[in-house]
Amino acid sequence: MDIQGSVALVTGANRGLGQHLAQELLRRGAAKVYATARNPAQITSAGVIPLALDINDAQSATAAAAAAPDVTLLINNAGNYNEATLLDGSIDDIRALMETHYFGTLSVTRAFAPLLVANAPAAILNVASVLSWLHPANTGAYNAAKAALWAQTDSVREQLATHDVTVTALHVGYMDTDMISELTVDKNDPALIAAAALDGVAAAAREVLADDLTRHTRASLGGDHT
């Protein structure tokens, strides 16, 4: 789809990748950008429209859709992170990741899908992860949540394919954001990732593989995962 002139809504736009996505949308000429967060007072980007949205609250998603009926591009970016392992991590921590990345994203998508169909051509961008495919034990719960989101993305894409709504998954490794600020790992520049993601949306790509780790991991599927 054409980013210029689009009406976009970005979840989790108060910081990190979401903030960069909102800013990049404006830079590319989006007509309107709804920037959402649980507390819209935390939205600091100039030129956006702050909007309250808690993706873990289905009523909040419904209210956001009612407040933004002109959306043509939905970006499901909001997420959370912990290092719960599957065998001995807190079941509440494990459930929190699945509730946000899978059920929360699905709630927002279900709320906006009728609008996207009505406003088509339209698009959805889901922020997944290289951990959709790469599954180290120390991030077992996060891996599972992102793998579930990947499956959700593929199914939603097929369901909306006949309605002129494209669905793109962004897969990327660690980014230099507040969410993982304490991790001592190589991190991608979120501004560059935002630009790559929107290039993918504009090209109606099924997937955006945003860094070398992700490209290598994706190419290894079906091979030796070691």
UniProtKB/TrEMBL annotation:
Which keywords annotate this record?
A: Oxidoreductase
Q: Which InterPro entries match?
A: NAD(P)-bd_dom_sf, SDR_fam
Taxonomic superkingdom: Bacteria
Q: Name one GO molecular function term.
A: oxidoreductase activity
Tagged with keyword Oxidoreductase: yes
Q: Name one GO cellular component term.
A: cytosol
**Gene3D superfamilies on file:** NAD(P)-binding Rossmann-like Domain
SUPFAM superfamilies registered for this protein in UniProt: NAD(P)-binding Rossmann-fold domains
Instruction: List the NCBIfam families hit by this protein, alphabetically.
Output: PRK08264.1-5
So what family is this one in? Belongs to the short-chain dehydrogenases/reductases (SDR) family.
What PANTHER family has UniProt attached to this entry? OS04G0390700 PROTEIN, RETINOL DEHYDROGENASE-RELATED
State the name under which the record lists this protein: SDR family NAD(P)-dependent oxidoreductase
